[in-house]
Every structure is written in C-alpha cells, then in structure tokens.
Design a protein that fits this description.
Elements: E1 4-5, E2 8-12, E3 15-19, H1 28-35, E4 54-61, E5 64-71, E6 84-86, H2 99-106, H3 116-129, H4 135-142, H5 152-165, H6 167-185, E7 192-197, E8 200-204, H7 208-217, E9 222-224, H8 230-235, E10 243-246, E11 256-258, E12 262-266, H9 271-279, H10 283-290, H11 295-300, H12 303-309, H13 316-322, E13 326-331, E14 334-339, H14 340-343, E15 344-346, E16 349-350, E17 356-364, E18 371-377, E19 388-396, E20 402-410, E21 417-418, H15 420-426, H16 433-446, H17 457-476, E22 483-485, E23 492-494
Parallel strand pairs: 1-7, 2-6, 8-10, 9-10
Antiparallel strand pairs: 2-3, 4-5, 4-6, 7-8, 11-12, 12-17, 13-14, 13-17, 15-16, 18-19, 19-20, 20-21, 22-23
Helix pairs in contact: 2-5, 9-10, 15-16, 16-17
C-alpha cells in the first residue's frame, strides 16, 4: 500500500473542497440538496432515467480537462475525488447568463422548469465539447433528459442557437478549464482515499497494485465502477453497503489499446468511449451503444462494470461474445484470461474468485469478409434495457461456406448465451434466408426463455428467430428495407 488519506478533495465550481466524516455512500445529489442547500439540481427518478439531476464532471486527461454530463442521483459524492464539479449554479457568471441559458429563454425552452436545470447541463456539456452539431446529435445528447411538459422542439432550437451565442464565452470557459486542470494536477497522489463512518467505509485506490491488495483484504466488498447499477442499490433498494471499493481513480484501468487484430479495453473505459471504439468496427455496434441508456449513463457506466454485473439482459455481452471477446481477471499478482461466454455461470453468478476483479477485455476485430449483425429489441427506443438482444458473427471460406458461427443472445436464458445447436447447423452451409430459417428453428433446442414483465417467452423466441432472419435478408437481399425511420429524425428502429 502507498498510504491512505481520509479527506475527499475536489473543485466545486472555483472552490477547492476538502471533506471528511460524511456518509461514505451519500450521493452527489443528496450532498448538494441536503448539505449544501443548492436546490438547482433536482431529484426526479433517483435512478438515472429522467436527467433532472444532471451535473457535469471534469477529469484531467493528458493535461487537459475532459467534461461529461452524469446523473448526480446515483453517483457517490466520494467519486468526485480529484475532479471538477459544475452545477447549474456555476453557469451564470458576472451577472450574465451562460449562452445555453440565454438560448433556452430566447426559444421558450422551459415550461414548468423542473427538468430545465438538467437539460441546461446536458446542453452545456455538448456546447463545451463540440461545435455546431446536427439536430440528431442534440437529440442524442438530450435522450437522457425527460421533459414532462413535452417541450422538446424549442429545447432543440435552443441547442442549435447556443453555439452562435458562445464564441467569447467558449474562450473564457476553455481558459478556466486549463486553470482547473493545473489545480487538479496538484491534488493527484498515489494514496488510497478511505472515508470511514462507523463500520462502513469507501476506499478508492489510486493504483492497480493497491486495488489488488485492498480487494484481497476485503473480498466481500462491493466493487463500484460507474455506479449506474450499484447507485440504485443505494437509492432504490436502500441497501447499507459496509465496504465499497471504487475504481474511478485508477488510470491504468481506462482506455483502449488497438492493434491490427484486437482491441483491448481497460475495465473502467466508459461506455461512451467503448461505443466510439466499437462503432469504428461496425455501424451496428455504434447503434447498439447509442441506445445504451442516456448519454449521462454512457458517460458514467463502464465496460467492465457492465460485464461484471452479470445481467442476462445486459446489452453488451451478447455483442462481445459474438465478437469472440475474452476477459482478463486479476487476483493479487495472478492473472487469468478466459472466453467471455465462460465467465457467466448462472443467474448473477460469474467465474470470479474472492478478491478477483475484471482488469481488461480483449475483443477480436472483424475480418474484411466477416458477416456481423447485432439487434436490440426493447419496449422504448431510448433508455431501455433489452427484452432480447441478438448478435451474430459468421466467417466463411472462399466458396462462401460458413466455417465459424457465433450466435449470442441476451434475454433468452439466465445468462448471455450462445446458441450451440443453431451454430452447429450453420457450419458448412452458405448463408441464405433458407439457412437462417433452419437455424431459427434450432433455437428452440437452445433456449427455454421465461415470461416476465418485459416480454413473454413466446415473444422472446419469435424475436430471436426473426433477428436471424433479418440478418439473412440484410446480407442476401440488401435492397429490402428492414429498418425504418423512428420518431426522431435519424433514428432507426426495427420493423
């Protein structure tokens, strides 16, 4: 261990905050509203869906600030260590509204006003990070913000207008960000943050070696990545978590390393960055990640967290299994790598030993001749987990016969699972609609899905079969439209 400290340090607007002795799992939202009495950030759903609680968090990367919108309602206050917090109260400066705020006024983008602060913060992150974006990009940035007064059209108009108003303000904010980066750099150290209250503790190691040591010492601890799931244990299930180990300070767990054949993701790589990297490999992967919750969730959620959570209806595991991904696990100084499909043993149970954590994920790239497809079926287009997710990869020889088939599904069993009978039937055959029909029939030997509130067993099986058929149509008869424009411009949904 490189030592510990018990003081949380971050910059709140322009002010350095040093806090200790607080509830180890209090959320940013509750701290703002209950302790600071700053009421601009609202609580709506308390589960990361509505966006009323949106704040912007800045992190130093390569000496520069990177800012992302997140949901304050499920993010622990202690996760702010070494970061910059921007709330709605920080935007107005020198008595003058920020261009985003002024644009919302000019275009009548606020009605009851409850959701407005979160919308403004999402637009602020977009304004800071990008330039003169399309309406589709504005809609994506706002997909995690629900306006109960249905004021979306003027809000999007405000999103278009804010860039025209922002030249001087942008220069000022960029200058402030550079100054904040220097201040945060002085706060960085290799000591583990440890916040203790009674028998409860929040530990945030700064290095991989310290993480391995701490987790070996507390093998029953809750591992916290982006808090998009664990946050709900706190806010909805009201669980009391005795020991939490947060991975957010370990830079070695972030980022993507790429070569000609593989992509290797650190476990703490955000879903937003994961989507950018996978999306370059295939457009279906970009679309899958685009629908992975709102942008606030993709900014906070991580690839390793999504895998380690072990949900049978998680969106990413079927796609990664189809791509032939493997996961590297670490326990103390030992590492082992196993195919991702073997990591999932039973419902919410994985092949992970006490004190062992997900360190990285290796993804095999698609070859030029690979056939790949992924489809997600959900009740809502945006911000909804899958009822069924199907991901398929086929490799063929020079004569077009299938030499390798990987058909992976989520929502069809207690774990993300390959369809072994259907895969075996495909080998040696040409990919066609007839072949897809045969494989679809074989799915009834591979899966016995359950009825639940998301979908009936019959519906799930029909969807799973039809996704294979759609894959064949898109490859063999590409002139046939299998996707249609959705309710928002540029969105694509299944027929």
């Amino acid at each position: 261990m490189t030592g510990t400290r018990n003081i949380l340090r971050f910059i709140d607007g322009e002010e350095l905050r040093e806090l200790s002795g607080f509830d180890p799992t209090i959320t940013i939202l509750d701290w703002l509203r209950l302790d600071e009495r700053r009421m601009g950030t609202k609580e709506g759903c308390a589960e990361g869906d509505c966006g009323a609680c949106t704040v912007v968090i800045g992190t130093v990367r390569a000496g520069k600030m990177a800012y992302r919108a997140i949901n304050a309602c499920i993010a622990p206050l202690a996760s702010l260590d070494g970061r910059h917090l921007i709330t709605i109260e920080h935007l107005k400066r020198g008595g003058k509204l920020h261009p985003v705020q002024q644009s919302m006024i000019d275009h009548h983008g606020s009605q009851c006003g409850f959701c407005t602060p979160g919308i403004v913060m999402s637009l602020f992150a977009l304004w800071f990070n990008e330039n003169d974006v399309s309406d589709e990009r504005i809609e994506d940035a706002l997909a995690g913000n629900l306006c109960r007064c249905t004021g979306y059209v003027p809000i999007i108009a405000a999103g278009r207008d804010m860039f025209a108003k922002g030249t001087r303000a942008r220069k000022n904010w960029m200058g402030r960000a550079d100054a904040i980066a220097k201040r945060l750099a002085r706060l960085q150290d290799d000591r583990s943050l440890e916040i203790v209250a009674g028998k409860r503790r929040f530990i945030a190691p700064a290095t991989l070696d310290d993480l391995a040591d701490v987790y070996a010492r507390y093998p029953g601890a809750t591992i916290l990545a982006g808090a998009t799931d664990v946050g709900l244990w706190i806010t909805k299930d009201m669980r009391v978590l005795d020991t939490v180990i947060h991975l957010g300070r370990i830079g070695a767990l972030e980022g993507v390393v790429e070569d000609d054949r593989t992509l290797v993701f650190g476990a703490m790589t955000s879903l937003f960055e994961t989507g950018e990297a996978l999306g370059r490999m295939h457009p279906h992967l970009a679309e899958l990640l685009r629908r992975f919750g709102g942008e606030q969730i993709r900014n906070a959620g991580t690839l390793g967290g999504n895998i380690a959570n072990g949900s049978p209806i998680g969106d990413l595991p079927p796609a990664l299994i189809a791509l032939g991904a493997s996961v590297t696990l670490r326990q103390k100084d030992e590492r082992r790598e196993l195919p991702l499909e073997k990591f999932f043993l039973a419902y919410k149970r994985q092949d992970r030993r006490p004190g062992e954590f997900v360190e990285s994920v290796r993804v095999r790239k698609l070859d030029a001749a690979s056939l790949f497809h992924v489809s997600k079926v959900s009740k809502r287009f945006d911000e909804d987990i899958s009822a069924v997710c199907g991901a398929f990869r086929l490799e063929r020889d020079v004569e077009g016969r299938i030499t390798e088939a990987r058909l992976a599904y989520g929502g069809m069993a207690a774990t993300p699972k390959r369809a072994s009978h259907a895969e075996a039937l495909l080998l040696g055959r040409e990919w066609s609609e007839e072949t897809a029909d045969r494989a679809a029939a074989a799915l009834e030997r591979d899966f016995k899905p359950l009825d639940d509130w998301r979908a009936s067993a019959r519906y799930r099986m029909r969807c799973a079969q039809n996704l294979l058929r759609r894959f064949a149509i898109e490859i063999c008869a590409p002139q046939i439209e299998t996707r249609i424009a959705g309710p928002l411009a540029g969105h694509v949904v299944s027929r």
